[in-house]
């Protein structure tokens, strides 16, 4: 085999490897992008639930609907545990919400 054919074959193999690596990297970037979208959506939902719970706590002494909204938001958050230590924090929050009596005073809040 002549040197020119060897060089052409070698360059062809290198080009094929570069093309394969490019396709693999594109695939990995797409997977990472999809995972990031899912994580951001879950984190945004957690923030929404926390804001709803805070609003419910602010109005808990004024109406009875706030207590129901607080428990409902907490239940939604319990189904949306995605981050490290989020389960422990949610469990702690659940214990605190369960400790609230029916007649909530300013000191309990």
Descriptive overview:
The structure is a single chain. This protein is mainly α and 109 residues long. The chain is built from 3 helices and no strands. Helix 1 packs antiparallel against helix 2. It is rod-shaped.
Short synopsis of the structure:
It is built from three helices and no strands. The protein has 109 residues and is mainly α. Helix 1 (3-58) runs antiparallel to helix 2 (65-78) and helix 2 (65-78) packs antiparallel against helix 3.
Layout of strands and helices, then pairs:
Blueprint: H1 3-58, H2 65-78, H3 86-99
Helix pairs in contact: 1-2, 2-3
Helix run count: 3
Distance between the termini: 86 Å
Query: Spans with pLDDT under 50 lasting ≥5 residues?
Result: none
Question: How much helical structure, as a percent, in the residues?
Answer: over 70%
From the alpha carbons, calculate the radius of gyration and give it in angstroms.
27 Å
Derived structural class = mainly alpha
Q: How much of the residues is beta strand, in percent?
A: under 5%
What overall form do the CA principal axes indicate? rod-shaped
Rounded mean pLDDT score:
89
- Count the beta strands: 0
Q: Strand count, sense and closure of the main sheet? A: none
Give the H and E element order: HHH
Question: Which key terms come to mind for this protein?
Answer:
109 residues, mainly alpha, 0% strand, rod-shaped
């Amino acid at each position: 085999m002549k040197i020119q054919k060897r060089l052409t074959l070698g360059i062809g193999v290198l080009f094929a490897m570069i093309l394969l690596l490019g396709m693999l990297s594109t695939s990995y970037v797409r997977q990472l992008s999809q995972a990031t979208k899912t994580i951001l959506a879950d984190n945004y939902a957690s923030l929404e639930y926390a804001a709803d719970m805070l609003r419910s706590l602010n109005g808990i002494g004024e109406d009875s609907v706030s207590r129901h909204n607080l428990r409902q938001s907490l239940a939604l958050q319990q189904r949306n545990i995605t981050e490290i230590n989020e389960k422990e924090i949610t469990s702690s929050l659940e214990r605190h919400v369960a400790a609230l009596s029916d007649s909530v005073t300013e000191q309990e809040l």
